[in-house]
């Protein structure tokens, strides 16, 4: 199946994200560094996740439907989020309030977005913005309620005050710490108290479920360990949460969490009924290093996201340091999960990227002191790089370019980018 991007291509670019790329441009004409999405692989990933979630859910007897709520923080692009809800997603997650605002006020503002904000909102400036964006969502017919997370009773008091001031309602998820040791409630007695506080403040606040995301588990390399973490201690902790709620005659409609590295295990556990997959669309070096059940590198999803860079200095025959210098450095690539990989299957040998500062990267022969064939490289040649971590790398760019058969087919603007207010 090939997806049509005609509707996306007719949209005006956000003012701050104007670019010179045009539909139909050749890949060779692109200015670099530029984020490029190879659409054949992207579409296979998009549709493949829908199928995998359906297949995993079909093996369960106690969960009639597994909902997909992909994470907007991966791409921060309303155009991509729209493609996801058109292809199996029931809603969207946002990590930051700026991301919610990008969906509600951006180029797809006409869509009735079903949004879960996966972090508690703290501080008066953010609370005021929360009220305003919820009010904007309410202005649309048949609007879903904005959902937000809480892990402190003060969150509930703040949300209630904002709900009354702006005449809105919120769906509330209590966040449970399931091993990430980031946000989330540790003490389950406190968890019950927070849920009770939500329930007693209906209808302004509505208890929608439990948020239980274990981000660190996404990159545990061992298949067996990733699976054990979910179907073992995480499942047990959530079962105890449900038992405590049952004692109070409180129903928990949704338990949400999971990611690209573990979603099948959350579904298998039988306790999650919503998964927050994100990176599957693009993939990166970090996810590529995960192992499958056969102890081979996972290959469920293909690499679709590349940073295209150009050789802007060439010393391939040097006796001092044989090298190529490309124009992609720290300003265009996030190194928090390691260096990017060079994707050059046409090269006569494996190549390696070495960071050379803000604007530069160095390409050298991997595991060797000299290039086997230095004449294969040319000044201005495009070198494709696989980002170490897709999310923060995308956050550095204003747009992504979708290509097929060497031509630009669509342009996606990263409208939710920035420091994440």
From TrEMBL:
<dbReference type="GO" id="GO:0036088">
    <property type="term" value="P:D-serine catabolic process"/>
</dbReference>
<dbReference type="InterPro" id="IPR051466">
    <property type="entry name" value="D-amino_acid_metab_enzyme"/>
</dbReference>
<comment type="similarity">
    <text>Belongs to the DSD1 family.</text>
</comment>
<dbReference type="Pfam" id="PF14031">
    <property type="entry name" value="D-ser_dehydrat"/>
</dbReference>
<dbReference type="GO" id="GO:0008721">
    <property type="term" value="F:D-serine ammonia-lyase activity"/>
</dbReference>
<dbReference type="Pfam" id="PF01168">
    <property type="entry name" value="Ala_racemase_N"/>
</dbReference>
<feature type="domain" description="D-serine dehydratase-like">
    <location>
        <begin position="304"/>
        <end position="404"/>
    </location>
</feature>
<keyword id="KW-0456">Lyase</keyword>
<dbReference type="InterPro" id="IPR029066">
    <property type="entry name" value="PLP-binding_barrel"/>
</dbReference>
<protein>
    <recommendedName>
        <fullName>D-serine dehydratase-like domain-containing protein</fullName>
    </recommendedName>
</protein>
<dbReference type="InterPro" id="IPR001608">
    <property type="entry name" value="Ala_racemase_N"/>
</dbReference>
<dbReference type="InterPro" id="IPR042208">
    <property type="entry name" value="D-ser_dehydrat-like_sf"/>
</dbReference>
<dbReference type="InterPro" id="IPR026956">
    <property type="entry name" value="D-ser_dehydrat-like_dom"/>
</dbReference>
């Amino acid at each position: 199946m090939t997806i049509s991007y005609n509707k996306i291509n007719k949209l005006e670019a956000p003012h701050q994200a104007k670019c010179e790329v045009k539909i139909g441009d050749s890949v060779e004409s692109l200015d670099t560094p530029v984020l490029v999405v190879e659409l054949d692989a992207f579409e296979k990933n998009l549709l493949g996740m829908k199928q995998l979630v359906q297949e995993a859910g079909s093996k369960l007897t106690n969960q009639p439907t597994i909902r997909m709520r992909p994470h907007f923080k991966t791409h921060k692009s309303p155009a991509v989020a729209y493609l996801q809800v058109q292809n199996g997603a029931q809603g969207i997650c946002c990590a930051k309030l700026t991301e919610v605002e990008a969906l509600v006020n951006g180029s797809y503002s006409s869509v009735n977005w079903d949004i879960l904000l996966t972090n508690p909102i703290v501080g008066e400036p953010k609370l005021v913005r929360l009220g305003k964006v919820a009010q904007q969502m309410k202005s649309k017919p048949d609007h879903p309620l904005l959902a937000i997370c809480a892990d402190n009773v003060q969150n509930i008091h703040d949300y209630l005050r904002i709900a009354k001031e702006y005449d809105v309602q919120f769906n509330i998820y209590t966040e449970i710490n399931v091993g990430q040791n980031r946000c989330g409630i540790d003490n389950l007695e406190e968890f019950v108290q927070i849920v009770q506080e939500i329930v007693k403040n209906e209808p302004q606040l509505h208890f929608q479920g439990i948020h239980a995301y274990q981000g660190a588990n996404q990159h545990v390399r061992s298949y067996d360990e990733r699976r054990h973490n979910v179907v073992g201690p995480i499942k047990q902790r959530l079962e105890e949460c449900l038992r405590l709620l049952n004692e109070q005659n409180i129903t928990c409609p949704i338990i949400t969490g999971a990611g690209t590295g573990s979603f099948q295990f959350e579904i298998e556990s039988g306790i999650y009924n919503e998964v927050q997959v994100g990176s599957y669309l693009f993939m990166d070096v970090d996810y590529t290093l995960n192992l499958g059940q056969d102890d081979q590198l996972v290959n469920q999803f293909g690499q679709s996201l590349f940073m295209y860079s150009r050789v802007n200095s060439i010393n391939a025959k040097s006796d001092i340091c044989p090298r190529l210098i490309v124009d992609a450095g720290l300003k265009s690539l996030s190194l928090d999960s390691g260096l990017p990989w060079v994707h050059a299957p046409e090269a006569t040998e494996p190549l390696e990227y070495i960071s050379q500062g803000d604007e530069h990267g160095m390409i050298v022969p991997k595991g060797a002191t000299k290039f086997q064939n230095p004449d294969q490289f040319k000044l201005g040649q495009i070198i494709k790089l696989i980002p170490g971590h897709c999310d923060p790398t995308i956050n550095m760019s204003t747009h992504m370019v979708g290509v097929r058969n060497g031509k630009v087919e669509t342009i996606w603007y990263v409208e939710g980018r920035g420091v994440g207010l």
